[in-house]
Amino acid sequence: MMISTVSVHTVHAPLKEPYTIAYETITEVTNHFVVIRMSDGACGIGCAAPAPEVTGESIQASRAALEAFAAEAPGSSLDTLPQPSGDTPSALAAVDLARHDLLARRRSTSIGGLFGDPDAAMTPAETSITIGISDTGSTLARARKLHAEGFRFFKVKGGHDVSADLERLSVLRSTFGPEIRLALDANQGYDLPDVERLERQAPDLNLAYLEQPTPKKDLSLLGLAARATSIPVMADESVQSAEDVHRIAGTGPVALINIKLQKMGGLAAAEAIDQAALQYDMGTMLGCMDESALSIAAALHFGATHPNVRFLDLDGHLDLRDDPFEALVRLDGNGRLQTETATGLGWYRNPFEEG
Predict the structure, then answer these.
(1) FRET label pair with 37: which of 30, 145, 173, 234, CA 20 to 30 Å apart?
(2) 266 and 310 together in one domain
(3) What is the mean pLDDT of residues 190-195?
(4) Nearest to 331, CA basis, from 297, 308, 306
């Protein structure tokens, strides 16, 4: 069966609540969707969520790569599918997800079924929920709201000021006690003395992990940070491939790797990175960008079928308005996500079809 047509669609989604990370405030996100239609009418859809600050690709470059793919792909099979050109991991992810969507539909199974268990992602799984950089009062107010909604795992964004981060974390821990789990994402903002200072309060905070404390290109400093603290250190921006995992493994006791489908290039790349991490006894976490529930559903299927995945941080779809695939992922009242029983990525109607 050959590819008949490929189309590309862009959705600009305002956020319900803008948030601040170490280097900017986010108010709106852009996702591209690629629709691959086969000669027999079968259809697969993938999502690209370009994030220039993480992967270096622009929104325009991601779209251009998908448009070039759309022009080249007709006449190919799924086995000879061309890849988007350029350094555009989100475009790679979109094509990869659409291909997996088609493969699963061909076999009348879910994405999880391609990895051995078609129903695994139906079991509710806890996700962390992100609290952006803000003052202590705003952080606590946001946490109280999220707690009332059922979330019990807060990932706090920091990295501007270790003193402010410690104050915010301490207030959350003293307010909610052991009922919640806490993690800190320093977004490359710390130096070694900052990590050492955090370590002095580590027993009181009981952090699940410290994500990307140091600049992404300085792997030796990341290793030193991991040696300087008892908090499990996670690599995020420092990792975009399995080769990066091998390099990081030689620097120090980095405990965790953050796998983001949009950053790595899709499910095939996630599989390679998870296997590389397993080789070094590193756990993995499935993270996300601000991305459609279509991509989140793929991550849920992957996480549910890969035991080395220790954490889920899949909240990137929750604040999106106008997500055409919002219904694919269900959030229960306890901060847990699950998919519905379905084939492929779970959609029943292509929202980009006219009529």
Answers:
(1) 30
(2) yes
(3) 98
(4) 297
CATH code for the domain of 58: 3.30.390.10
Residue 353 maps to a domain: no
* Pairing, β 309-312 against β 329-331: unpaired
Average pLDDT over residues 1-14: 95
CA distance 354 to 192: 55
Q: Is 222 within a domain?
A: yes
Q: How far apart are CA 141 and CA 46, in angstroms?
A: 36
Estimate the crossing angle of helix 219-228 against helix 242-249, to 10 degrees: 50
Contact 326, 346 (CB under 8 A): no
Helix (H, G, I), strand (E, B) or coil at 278: helix
Domain that holds residue 82: 3-108
Distance CA 351, CA 323 (A): 10
Calpha distance 111→355 (Å, rounded): 27
